[in-house]
Specification:
InterPro entries: Amino_acid_transport_2 (IPR018227). Its main location: membrane. The protein has helices at about 20-35, 40-50, 50-80, 85-95, 95-130, 145-155, 160-185, 190-195, 205-215, 225-235, 240-270, 275-285, 285-295, 300-335, 345-365, 370-375, 380-395, 405-420. Helix 2 (about 40-50) crosses helix 12 (about 275-285), helix 5 (about 95-130) packs antiparallel against helix 17 (about 380-395) and helix 10 (about 225-235) runs antiparallel to helix 11 (about 240-270). The model is unreliable at about 1-15 (pLDDT under 50). The protein has one domain (about 20-425): Amino acid/polyamine transporter I, CATH 1.20.1740. By secondary structure, it is mostly helical.
């Protein structure tokens, strides 16, 4: 496998002269593919249920928070001397016990994301096959279908980021094009009443807080930032160059996502009615699967199918890198307490982790838990891992004092909101 070589800089050379390479583009594509996943295809369902004023407020809170929390999360990892998993980075700052505890929270956060994608892939693909009369019944009822589907996706994902650049790259390009095209096509079908329903003042705060996770997940790709950090730091001998390329890729991906996802989300929100959203919630399917059923035109249905499948599959590829790293980090952290690291068979660990992931996902998908519910319940884990912990590190660790500022307080406050958001489901 060839290695992309990037010229290293002398200390006196300006960082702005670092060229933008295919490797940088590949990571930007994976970041965008990670973000355009379950969040974007399920957020219109939540908007359809709660209304436009709730949606606008949740977006106003979440999108600036996403930029700051991802930037803070990434910089705390970049400034760690450890170039490995999240557990290793936290252990470097706070010790092994904190490392394993927060690694478990990180695992739960990523587990919630990857099971969401695995469930969506299984049930949406089965729904499409049945909708287009390719099958007489939903294949999702067959456990072997989900097992085969998950196993194939995991095997592809386990090959590393360079293969994923080649596999996910075309998918992301296609779905990004479809996002813009579908947003434009849906304009004639807009109905202002779908989004600007009368404001329910009594339940407004509750609805905003329960919608925060959906707004967050619509452009979030924090799950892939540590794998990207590790890859760049292993590639570059000069940490300044690695840091510059990581931050540059992060900013480009964020800017592209904000513009495209907002347009797409607004267009869908104006198109899907409250009844359509309720149907999607009841049947555990995405907004795109609803569009394939109710909007006229075979080509619109074809685009919605391609976007849904490509969005979920490419996001699965992105989240797998982070999830595999999280599981592997826990295994290595626990093993290091009993066996010296150099005595561990890393190949056996990798194979065992891959098989365990396939088994976990298969069991979860077979249970058919609500995807919408999972998106809301995992909000607190994102609050802890991506908001509270980086904020705490910036305040406590002397080497991270350069990260302190107003953004840290904003991220910390947003993390608290994510922590309490699932509690408000009890009042629905």
């Amino acid at each position: 496998m060839s290695t992309i070589k990037t010229p290293t800089l002398a200390r006196s050379e300006p960082l702005l002269e670092i060229p933008f390479t295919g490797y940088d583009f590949g990571w930007i594509v994976l970041c965008i593919g990670m973000a355009i996943g379950s969040g974007i295809v399920f957020m219109p369902v939540q908007v359809g249920l709660k209304g436009g004023w709730v949606f606008l407020t949740a977006i106003a809170l979440s999108y600036p928070a996403v930029y700051h929390l991802q930037n803070l999360f990434l910089r705390t990892l970049m400034q760690s001397e450890v170039r490995e998993d999240y557990a290793g980075a936290i252990s470097h700052y706070l010790g092994k016990n904190w490392g394993i505890a927060l690694a478990f929270v990180y695992f739960v956060m990523l587990f919630g994301a990857i099971v969401t994608y695995a469930t969506s892939i299984t049930y949406d693909s089965a729904s499409y096959l049945q909708t287009f009369h390719i099958t007489d019944h939903a294949l999702s009822d067959n456990g072997w279908y989900s097992l085969a589907l998950i196993a194939v996706l995991v095997v592809i994902s386990a090959q590393g980021e360079r293969l994923l650049f080649k596999v996910a790259g075309p998918m992301v390009a296609v779905k990004f094009t479809i996002i813009v095209a579908m947003a434009v096509v849906m304009v004639p079908h807009w109905n202002v009443q779908n989004i600007l329903r009368p404001l329910d003042v009594g339940n407004f705060v509750r609805d905003v807080l329960t919608t925060l996770p959906f707004a967050l997940f619509s452009i979030l790709y924090v799950q892939i930032l540590n794998p990207m950090n590790i890859a760049y730091r292993k590639l570059e001998s000069d940490p300044r160059v690695a840091a510059y390329r990581i931050v540059r890729a992060n900013r480009i991906a964020y800017a592209v996502l904000v513009v495209s996802v907002l347009f797409f989300a607004f267009s869908f929100a104006f198109t899907i009615s409250q009844a359509d959203a309720a149907y999607a919630l009841e049947h555990n399917i995405s907004a795109l699967a609803i569009v394939a059923k109710v909007m006229p035109g075979a080509w619109v249905k074809a685009m919605s199918v391609m976007l849904d499948i490509f969005a979920i599959v490419s996001a699965f590829f992105g989240i797998y890198l982070g999830f595999n790293e999280a599981v592997r980090g826990i295994v290595l952290n626990m093993s290091a307490r009993f066996v010296r690291t150099e005595y561990l068979n890393k190949s056996a660990v990798d194979v065992g982790v891959t098989c365990a992931i396939v088994l976990m996902l298969w069991v979860w998908v077979s249970a058919n838990f609500s995807t919408m519910l999972i998106l809301q319940l995992t909000g607190p884990t994102y609050g802890i891992t991506t908001c509270l912990v980086p904020s705490y590190l910036a305040w406590r660790v002397p080497s991270l004092r350069n990260l302190r500022g107003g953004a840290v307080y904003f991220v910390f406050l947003y993390g608290l909101l994510l922590m309490v958001s699932p509690l408000f489901r009890l009042f629905e």
